[in-house]
Design goal:
With about 250 residues, this protein is of the alpha/beta class. The chain is built from eleven helices and eleven strands. It comes from Nocardioides aquiterrae.
Length: about 250
Amino acid sequence: MTITSQLRPDGIRVVTMAAPPVNALTVQGWYDVAAALDEAGRDRDTKVVVLRAEGRGFNAGVDIKEMQHTSGFEALIGANRGCYAAFKAVYECAVPVVAAVHGFCLGGGVGLVGNADCIVASDDAYFGVPEVNQGALGAATHMARLVPQHLMRTLYFTARTIKAADLVQFGSVLEVVPRDQLDDAALKVAGEIAAKDTRVIRAAKEALNGIDPIDVNKSYRFEQGFTFELNLAGVSDELRDDFAGTDKATK
């Protein structure tokens, strides 16, 4: 698994996630994403960030198999804290974050994208929060930034997905382009931002966060509390075993 960060001469920093086969991030992976975004915000030469991924899809959420092959609650707590750190780092990055989404964007992926400032997607991209299938809760906070409330609840309760093209009407996805044009489309938007005075853009990012009607950090932690309850009740472990095909005797 690799999280890379490259600063271009124009001030655009490209952060790329590459965790084959499906970009389901380990505990360390989430912390690595957080570190890359925190570093980008601290670097005064960074004017805007493009968050992208390699492989079949943008992000498949938490690495369930890592969690099921770790005894006790260490991996669960680590995943919850890691996701919180990564989502927070995107939201609080001192410069705007443009998410370039292709293929699947699920669970934790929605957490990253929902906290981004601008979303560009390929025509094969789709979004979903299948947390209920694995006995977890989370990222409703972020899905609610992509779709209206009743649609968010339907998607959440049913674990359905929604195509990127359907999000354009809500204004959450800026545009949908062919897969081979995604990086160029994201860099084009990022370039427009990078061309502005970065002192003003950094102030604007802080100002817009300050007037947000929802505290996304506290809201997400509230959701996580119910995930812990379901784990203590044994519900989550049972459902994750079914998902991962884990044999209890080998754990």
